[in-house]
Amino acid sequence: MKGQPNRLGTDRQHHFHGSAINRTKPLQFRLDGRVISGFAGDTVLSAALASGIDTVGRRDGAVLALSSRHAPAISFAALAGDHQRALPMERTLATDGADYLTSARKTKGNPITRLLRRYGRSLAIDLDRPDALARPWLGTPAAPGPQADLVVVGGGVAGLSAALAAAKRGLQVVLAEATPFLGGKTRLFGTQEGEETPDEAIARLRAAVAKADAITVLTSAEAFALRPGVVRLHQVEMLDSTPTGRVIDIRARHIILATGALERLPLFPGNRLPGVAGTLEAFELAQLHGVWPGATALVATSSSPAYRLAMLATDAGITVPRIVDSRPRPQSRFIEFSKAYGITLAAGTIVASAAAAPKGGGLTVMPQLSMEGFSRAEPALTVDRLVVSGGWQPDLTLWHMAGGESAWNGSSARLEPHAGPDGIVLAGSAAGWLSRSACLASGSDAVDVLLGRQRRLVEDRLIDPIYETPDAPAPVGDEPDEAAQPVFLDGGWRHIERPRKVVSRWPAWLPFAPKPPGWSLADTPQPLDIADIAAGVQLGAIPAASAGIVAQERVAMVAVESGEDDIGPSADPPAPAAQLPDRSLRGRNTVAGRPTRRAAARYGRADLFQCGYVRSAQGHRRRGADCRGQGRGPRDRQCRADGMGARTQPRRRHQAGGAVSP
Amino acid sequence: MLDAGTRQDEAIYKPNAAKNHQNTRSWGGRIATGAHCRGCVADGKHRGMSEARADFVIVGSTPTARLVAGLLASTHGKAVVFSGESQSGYRLPRAVDLSVAQITRPESWALLRAGLPEALKLISRIGGRRAWSRIDPIFFSEMPDGKEALAHIRHMALAFGHAAELVPSSALGMGRDGLLLRDAVLLHRPTLEAGLDRWLEQHRVRRLLDGDALTVHADGSAELVSGEDRVEIGQAVLADDAAILAHAPKALWPPLLTRRVHSTVATEPTRPMAAALMHRLDTGLTLVQQAERGIAAIGPGAIDPFAAALGVLLGREREFRQAGQSSYEAVVTADAAPAVGRLSGSGPDVLAGLGPTGAFLAPAIARWLCGVAAPAENAWLGARLVDRPTAASAVAEFGGMA
Question: Is the pTM for the entire model greater than 0.95?
């Protein structure tokens, strides 16, 4: 395909043709002046990736990959100055003839390159700027959204199930899905014995939802703020075939969070280089859009679904020379099938580092045998792509925003939900369920919890650990030195790095030898995403016992303005509460930290501190006082891959169900 | 508000009768604090904690608490148990540690001035040069009382040789008066805390482990149960607000102390402020801008009104996104003056209302607890006992904090 080097062909039978795109309807649009080719059904992001753009820009000299969780905002060239009309690349459907600009500042560099706008594989964004990947719509005032009795956040199988159950019980439901497509992430995980296939399940649920008049579906609608009774979301809707963003508040008595799970990033130098992608990211790009950069891929995992992806990629013509697994003796039905595919497996092995290959594209990956205290470097591998998986973390971001609690589970190495506020219930993977059957059942159960009805039995039917090794914690490599590529804790846009080892010419035992600087996540001027916190616990920067409270403290809270009366500053509250009291009131007087008119009237003038005024007695400008210069396989194979014949057993029986009750 | 500095002549403080620290006891010619440490002092084995007795338990997570614990163990040879989390590296700050404050009392300026070199030398040795930095904080107010307090504070600071400059209202916003204090010392808690923990370990201060149970009794003694071990502790010192709230016996709660909700909001990087640290006398709000230009705002109030007031204060040009938020209880004194000493005269010791300067007073406090304080320290701390009556004063010791 001309202009789309990363688009998979359709000359052979495989599952990565791109279920969301229509290859008979090609389109073209401009992005920062470059012509991008795609197909109807592509997002701006998937088309850019198909066209060979795989880099966002540089941060501290290191190039970082473009992904659905790490992409800049865009806006129409004609509206470039209007940040409130900005759109997310990953949620905006590509339209023929559109002209987009990324809203972030570009890196300086060769002026001729800049003039000609020839950035190669990169969007050339200056990621050293703190607002480089800011999402301007977070501060946009919200318009009222559709009326609802229940808002379901997340259009995966749990969310679809919850919406249907609620509609069946007579509730008016709004179902909000962040991506342009319903169905969620269940396709990656395959099928267990006796289950319908993921595609069948999704098609069944989608058809039922489409028939239900009581369900309003909002796609490309990402919820970014939540408090009991209100969900604020940003939606990209197509108005006259033009993508348009809007921010709306949906008020409802009941809210179900079926936000799924985030894939953890293994911690090794170069874990966010262009060419490194998470299993889920790689699967969705390939399955929905038929995009797979490169011809060879190394898979590094601590979770079994990655083996399934490796087989599907092999079917699509991708060479997978090896799968490295951090688990010492992994067992999985997918592993047995992978062996049948002829893929070399390396157990007890992690990725020690990744670096750009010396010549041309691709990555040089250093595997490291790391098992039971024994460690040995393995020969380097050069591949086009490194697909990694560090396990799964329930996405509790909105849960924490609403005041929900969580606690670290040491055995599963993840934060799991505990008690939450009235009127808000978790379902599906977000509630900690693992199997599709449990996720489906937990959706219905969540509705029963909210309505105070008798609850149903939800059970996670998991394959016996003898046959299916549970996920291991995200692999953690050695402490990086000063010359190493940065190690990021997560693949999002927070850019929280693991500190580097400080090399000293003095032995550490000498009293005057420099002490290692303490790692302070408290000083980090960004919110901590939940995967950052999970990584922080693994690295010992956050005690496990404090992980839940830190997750609450450092969630990216966006204030939701309410129409209720303000409450003035409480000089001496009669009954001070414990941590995070009355979060339902939080931030009512501010919008993204900006005071509302009402708050301004109440608390006084909107004055500011003029910087640059404070001079020393000698007339010299003092540090910190200057505001200038702010910058710094075949079908039968697939049946096996889907888990045909897998034996299952119920792992967990919860009369209480998958939803976490208030 | 109470004029704590004028209470020295009253009956509360009796240095001759009580040596330095109230209720300290003389055993065999030694000054010892607490009821159970005599044997430990006699056999000299107390520092190893092999026996089931200790002199002090210091409860608290602040640098003040750690410094007091370490000084009691290192300088004063006491057997010390420490109960406090090391959380500065991952929790939002609840206070700042600054060598100056909005202090209106000359004796407080004198004590801080005298004690700063010693405290700074100790902090540098423990935490290294990265544990503190020099800054020029600004204290400001827009209320008449606050402006008056600022003028008073400026006179005091200048009288004690501290460079204090008026800040033009154009730098702060119309109608505001500001006072800039040069070359103050700001502690960097995450860095210092790591050093302090090493220091405590070096001096064999026993730390509570997960599963250990500490009980503070009404007579000021305490008991630590750790697995099969049981440790009797002579005297408990509740060295920060959380410790007081968690361990102060209900029956001994003094009228001087009240609970109040405070909040911390951390912001993503925003435009620079006029100074790296600013304190608003009218509301008790403290703003600290970090190197990466994120702001930590700490002050009284629930998160909602607190964030709203912060948004107004920073103005439209500093629209911010929250990088973190926390609400918690703090202990404030009714007269905005420090409160130290034993609850009801015989209970556990408390350290409350010391403002941002507590860490710099730690050497004096440690000496006082051991009964070896200098006369001036003795007088200052003795005049600020927690069981003093609550009374009003025109000018609070910490201007504008009440």
Answer: no
